[in-house]
Design brief:
With 210 residues, the chain is mainly alpha-helical. It has one domain. The chain has ten helices and no strands. It is globular.
Length: 210
């Protein structure tokens, strides 16, 4: 099997378009980086990457198909995702904006956001839908489907992580430019409201039956 084919190039372009379109991950990472800084954003990006990788592996093993075929499982996943985003909004509201350098660089602080990024994607049915509805279209039936699914998943996660990292870098720069406690507090409240809207949007756009 050729590794660079028109189909693969089409898949790469599709991934870039999808990940460049504003969505839950992009919005959350931008909000997080503005309110908590780049390190928090990069930690969450790593968690998102792991979450997408796990969903990709689950797809290759057929677990994602099971979820898509069970409306009860899908709805439970969707509702959990909504509550997770509402929790992120609450946590953003109560999180201290001005942190010491020791707090910012601590592994516990970074792990907190890594876990958030991971959980948000494990509870995101849209990731499951991507792997089921879009990825199979680029699989060559004449070769190992599982190998191709894993291979394409790796490419997708790499593209998504690169774009997410770029968003975090830009949003983190905005925080540096707005480094003022009063301004950051106002931004935190605005971002909390934005996260609530994202949770509502997430609930509406994932409300479907099979």
């Amino acid at each position: 099997m050729d590794f660079v084919t028109p189909s693969l190039l089409s898949f790469i372009i599709t991934c870039i378009i999808i990940e460049s379109t504003p969505g839950v991950n992009m919005s959350y990472l931008a909000i997080l980086s503005v309110t908590n800084g780049r390190k928090a954003g990069y930690a969450a990006t790593a968690g998102v990457a792991l979450g997408l990788s796990i969903v990709g592996i689950a797809t290759a093993l057929g677990v994602a198909t099971l979820i898509s075929n069970s409306n009860i499982i899908y709805q439970a996943l969707r509702i959990s995702g909504v509550f997770d985003h509402l929790w992120l909004a609450y946590d953003t509201w109560k999180t201290k904006i001005v942190l010491s350098q020791e707090e910012v660089h601590s592994l516990i602080y970074q792990a907190k956001f890594f876990k958030r990024g991971l959980i948000s994607n494990l509870l995101n049915p849209k990731a499951v839908i991507f792997y089921i509805a879009i990825l199979p279209k680029f699989i060559d039936p004449s070769s190992s489907a599982m190998f191709q699914a894993v291979y394409l998943s790796i490419i997708y996660v790499f593209i998504a992580t690169f774009i997410h990292g770029f968003i975090v870098t830009l949003a983190g720069t905005m925080r540096i430019l707005l480094e003022n406690e009063k301004r950051l507090t106002i931004i935190r409240y605005a971002m909390t409201f934005a996260l609530v809207l994202i949770a509502i949007w997430f609930a509406m756009t994932t409300n479907q039956t099979f």
